[in-house]
Design goal:
globular, about 25% helix, Alpha-D-Glucose-1,6-Bisphosphate, Chain A, domain 4, about 140 residues, Polyketide_cyclase/dehydratase, START-like_dom_sf, SRPBCC family protein, 7-stranded antiparallel β-sheet, alpha+beta
């Protein structure tokens, strides 16, 4: 099976620090994204809920996913890996914030291998739609 790649991006008038404040606090994600409820499972190694190594769970409809923060570069980059909840292997997402004049470009991307042959296209389609909701929701929330 070949690796699948997806991405969505947008630009907001909000400064990178304002975008980072929302992005780096996963408890806010359900308020501005298509995701359902959030719960912290394990804090990061530094004791912060969303620090490096921190694990969170999101429940959206019948899906329950667990994700671990694997990279943090405030206020520019946040990466997480899927631990469970979707039939995907080696799933890793990266959110990059790039200053643009007085605003911020938000790029949310991921790569993964489908768990079963022939299913990559459906996960690309569904996750791209979710990512579009993530970037537009984050951009709007950071502006407010």
């Amino acid at each position: 099976m070949k690796i699948q790649r997806i991405a969505a991006e947008t630009t907001t008038e909000a400064a990178p620090d304002a975008v980072w404040a929302l992005l780096s606090d996963r408890s806010t994600w359900p308020s501005w994204s298509p995701l359902g409820s959030h719960s912290g499972v394990r804090p990061g190694r530094d004791g912060a809920p969303d620090g490096l190594g921190g694990i969170a769970q999101f429940v959206t409809g019948r899906n329950c996913v667990r994700e671990e923060i694997v990279e943090r570069e405030p206020p520019r980059r946040l990466s997480y890996a899927l631990l469970s909840g979707l039939p995907l292997r080696n799933y890793r997402a990266v959110v990059e914030l790039t200053p643009t004049g007085t605003g911020t470009r938000i790029r949310w991307s991921a790569s993964f291998f489908p768990g079963r042959p022939g299913t990559g296209w459906i996960y690309r389609l569904v996750l791209t739609r979710i990512f579009r909701g993530m970037v537009t929701g984050l951009a709007a929330a950071a502006r407010d």
